[in-house]
Amino acid sequence: MRQRKLIGQVIQRHVVELDRSDIRRFAGATGSIDQVHYDPMAAKKAGFKDLLAPLAMATTLSNHGGLAQLLEVHPKNILHSEQTVDLRRPLQAGDLIRIVTVVTDVHERPIGSATTGFVTLEDRATDSKGKQLFFARRVLAVRGGFPRR
Amino acid sequence: MPKVYWKSIDIGDPIPPLSKPTLTRSEIVAFSVLAGELSPLHLDEEFARQAGYGSISAPGLLGMSLATEMVERWLENGRLVGIATRFQKLIWPGDVLTAKGVVVRKYEVGQVPRIDCDVWVQNQANDIVLKGTAACMVFREVAEERKKKGVFPEAPLSVAATVRPLPVVTGATKTTHQPAEGKNGKKQATKGKAAPAPKTAPAKVAPAKAAAAPAKSAKGKSGGSSTVKSLVKTAASAGKRALAKAVSKKSAAKKPAAKKPAAKKKTAAKKKPAAKKKPAAKKKTAAKKPAAKKKTAAKKKTAAKKKTAAKKKTAAKKKAPAHKK
Hints:
The complex is a heterodimer. By secondary structure, chain A is mainly beta. Helix content of chain A is about 15%, strand content about 40%. Chain A is elongated, with a radius of gyration of 18 Å. Chain B has twelve helices and five strands. Chain B has a five-stranded antiparallel beta sheet with strand order 1-3-4-5-2. Chain B is elongated and about 110 Å long. Strand 2 (about 80-85) of chain A pairs antiparallel with strand 2 (about 80-85) of chain B, so a sheet runs across the interface.
């Protein structure tokens, strides 16, 4: 399985700046009612320097667009199986976030009579000073396993 | 909601559930774009149907965001610091999702009081679409809350200490069997444009124990291989051998190791009973007949041996071209 060569490989590095409008839109889409996501004054009262980003937003900051090509599988066969997020400090508006996405595992295992592939990606995010912000782990399931052409 | 403190929380305390109104296609598309989940399975209705799903499905993060929102509403004076979730079933347009949770653990990390909650999201059919654990930080008591201004400790926390990892599933998980539902989806798509509902039976695992118990029920059929097999069967029954060969060649190219042993097993199964039956028949005749008739019995034996040898030869001839293919 040649996809195992991807283990340990950095597939993406990018920098994102969190702005207030992004936080408000995401909080609105998730149905959040906490004013710390909408009102800067409420956020400051709660002890934050600016609007607080919802925890789930940490998972949306990385972009895994070219993954299907990298794995040589059709996008229709990729399903999101697991997601983990660990916050080291709250994400707030104005944060400059550096995200490095690494492939940490690629394997196959039989599920019933069919084989399913699994890919684990880790997003390691740091701030502009190099301090850890969050750690997100995403497991993707590949229907039918990986191609062996 | 009343404020939550570490001292007042007990293990087993439920988190007030949070429901989401009926999910629409436009909501799914909007959330997918916002969350950067740009898979056509979440955005393109036609693509999703052709891929074997009845309709577009929502990204798992939509369920996760509902679970986090439930915890955040409950923890008015605390914070969610981590979550680990496993997506069990697809979320379809028309689903009514409800997030639920329960406190399962109280502990401290560097003298910072923490609690873990089991969380899960279920649809209108009470199927659990997502389950996981959430790690939360709370104040120990009212006095501590008054002293502190911020809600997060400054010291970084180790990964292991933040979110309790999900149990390792060695067997089949429901998540990976979602593709099998594509067949249902296909049928529904041909019937009409109604939103597909998950047809699998509701999970029998108790929600509080759900995170620890791996899912056992699984169909385990991949859409691709089963369609190839069904194609082969229909072609053979109709007498279209040429078509069947063409399809079987394709499938053999994909799974050469899987088909050959099956063919061998069949031939072996045919041979063995025949070999066993004949000696049994010989014994019976030998016991019944007197010594004078031994000659005829011997003749029969030789004839039987010759027959079996001839059969083996013909079988071997038949086998040989099959292996060459």
